[in-house]
Amino acid sequence: MSDAPIDLAHLGRYTAGDARLERELLDLFVRTAGDCLARLDAAPDARAWAEAAHGLRGAALGIGAARMAVLVARAEACGPGAAGREVLPALAAALAEVQAFAAGRPGREQSCR
After folding, report:
1. How far is the C-alpha of 92 from the C-alpha of 100, rounded, in Å?
2. Which residues contact 47 (CB under 8 A, 6 or more apart)?
């Protein structure tokens, strides 16, 4: 198993090798995952926690972020109590790794944001 936070073989199969689509999906994942983490942190109840975690786990698996998906599964199983919330810093770190990985992919277009 690679040390990369994204399984590029998996992502390549998903995008049929389209590098532009790959970058677009990684950028979308980073934004969506950040929103999901914020929803987890602010979850008022078990249902909100489960919905945010489930969506994040599916998105992580979809792009090949297996290590992140494992962390989300742990948070999802633990629920919104102390044990689940203990996973949030590791999830934030995993997301930061994905974000740095995505930003460093060759051929990224520069934006003027």
Report:
1. 12
2. none
pLDDT by position in tens, the chain (length 113): 468 999 999 999 989 999 899 999 999 999 999 999 999 999 999 999 999 999 999 999 999 999 999 999 999 999 999 999 999 999 999 999 999 998 887 654 544 33
Instruction: Report d(CA 97, CA 109) in Å as an integer.
Output: 20
Question: Which CA distances in Å does 17 have to 13, 37, 38?
Answer: 7, 29, 31
Under 8 Å between Cβ of 39 and 52: yes
> Nearest-5° angle of CA 105, CA 8, CA 106?
15
What string of H, E and C letters represents the secondary structure of 32-44? HHHHHHHHHHHCC
The structure's pTM equals 0.86
Query: How many CA atoms within 13 Å lie on the side-chain side of 69?
Result: 15
Q: Which has the closest alpha carbon to 78: 91, 94, 96?
A: 91
